[in-house]
Amino acid sequence: MQYRYSLITLFIIISSLLQAQSITEEEFRGVWIVTAFNIDWPSSPYLTAEQQKQEFINLLDIHKSYGINAVLVQIKPSGEVFYPSDYEPWSHWLTGKQGKAPEPYYDPVQFMIEECHKRNMEFHAWINPFRYVSNIARVKPVPNHITRQKPEWFINYGGEIVKKYLNPGIPEARAYVIKVIMEIVHKYDVDGIHFDDYFYPIKQNGKEFPDYNTYQFYNKDNLSLADWRRQNINQFIHDLSDSINAAKPQIKFGIAPVGIWRNKYQDPEGSNTRGLSAYDQLYADILLWLREGWIDYVAPQIYWNIGSANADYHELVDWWSRHVYGKHLYIGQAVHRVNTSRSWKNPSEIPDQIRINRMYPEVKGSIFYSSRNMMTNVNGLNDSLRSNLFLAYAEPPKMAWKQNKETDIIIAENTDTIVKYYKLRHIPQPRAPINLSASKIRKEILLSWEMDESQKKFLADTNSYYRVYRFKGKYSGNISDEYLIAETKKPRIMLYKRGKLFGKKYTFVVTAVNAQNKESFPSEDIVLKMKIKK
């Protein structure tokens, strides 16, 4: 049976390699950006505000250049955050000192969202809900930190490094975390709220997470310890989902669990694997959340290679594709494992994994871990994406059950002292202009373009406009403002024969910008060798 399965896998891979790459209009192509321990961004907690901004811009431009259309940024890696909050202090990974704001002051999350949306990239706010102090020996919380205000909510636990965790078994503690997350939802135009696999911590040094007293006090249904823990996480996910959908129903809520729900030896419904189980060791019942519609997408971290003895990549993709219950499935890709062992040295490993993903219509895309690994073009992966697998432009896939149409929503945020109202106008990003062409009119050149017929709302909106970019020589793939030469409401622009422009070869692209200041991907480029006739 294993031999037959391997032959089928090989056949699928070879077949996909022989096929011309299909044009993919919708596919999620994300990258995780880790802020904890300065793994991805910022590279140091001692950068200036301008250095932080430029580093993030460079990071986005590089990721966009090979086809990435979404980033998942860790804005709450623990009980400290990367934005001004009424509840939690500034992160020491941002400024070197917990509670210290950036100098000169700026709001990093607002800045990052704006930069992403300029590039038509989605911004998902990645949150760690229950880890509150990453190392109690090194990180000293500020006086107004919740761990000092409500010490009874927290448990110290760990091996060599002891962390402080919020106890998910306390209803008031769970409600506090939801309040923290809803501050983000109300405050920012995020495209998604995202968790990874941090729920209950896995067993450390053979010792259980010490929440037995909480279990004794709150276990009103006489559940086993494991079922009670799962019930706590289930209730948390349900309540947060309801809160997000009541406030901003267009926001996506997604979770990236470990790649194995349960093993077949633990449950007949499980996968044919042997490994860490989300259900049994992290107390995360992902399938329940999908069946009940509490989350919009799942991104299992399938961090095994094709043919792995304990957890074969293809086996897990196949299993998850049969257990997604109509929601979106994105696969977490282990770029950080490339070249770490013999089985991960094959340059085709990740590209072949993406080809396997595309054999399953339930798989809507990939998320790569993590930004730092992707920035190095390890084993030529970025080149393979840019020139082959991600050659065709793709937008993040739409979710039929979410609000994707133009909507006005009034949001009320209750705080202790004030009620704030936010008005959100949600408009889909425009498609790129098409049919870019050039024609000579007398001694000038007219550059013109069109919009697809599906973009009627863009064309009818008086606040919509176009941006024209010029590059000396070839198009660099970067549409930053330094290449911007004009903004116009009309689908054309006249290039006059004066100044330094003529006598050289230039490449032009055009983008469309809608009323929400969301910019499309660039049009196909056009190259003009612009000579002046004497």
Tell how many strands the DSSP assignment holds: 20
- How helix-rich are the residues, as a percent range? 25-40%
Strand order of the largest sheet: 1-2-3-7-8-9-10-11
Q: Which outline best applies? A: globular
- The helix count comes to 15
Using only C-alpha atoms, the radius of gyration works out to 25 Å
The residue ranges in which pLDDT falls below 50 over 5 or more consecutive positions are 1-5, 13-24, 405-426
In percent terms, what proportion of residues is strand? 15-25%
The class by helix and strand makeup works out as alpha/beta
Distance between the termini: 77 Å
Brief rundown of the structure:
By secondary structure, the chain is of the alpha/beta class. It has 15 helices and 20 strands. Helix 2 runs parallel beside helix 4, helix 6 packs parallel to helix 8 and helix 12 packs parallel to helix 14.
List strands and helices in order, with pairings.
Elements: H1 2-18, E1 28-33, H2 49-65, E2 70-76, H3 92-95, H4 108-118, E3 122-127, E4 131-133, H5 146-149, E5 154-158, E6 162-166, H6 171-187, E7 192-195, H7 212-218, H8 225-247, E8 252-255, H9 278-281, H10 286-292, E9 297-298, H11 313-321, E10 328-333, H12 349-357, E11 363-368, H13 371-375, H14 381-389, E12 407-414, E13 419-426, E14 434-441, E15 444-450, H15 456-460, E16 465-472, E17 484-488, E18 492-495, E19 504-513, E20 526-530
Parallel strand pairs: 1-2, 1-11, 2-3, 3-7, 7-8, 8-9, 9-10, 10-11
Antiparallel strand pairs: 4-6, 5-6, 12-13, 14-15, 15-18, 16-17, 16-19, 19-20
Helix pairs in contact: 2-4, 6-8, 12-14
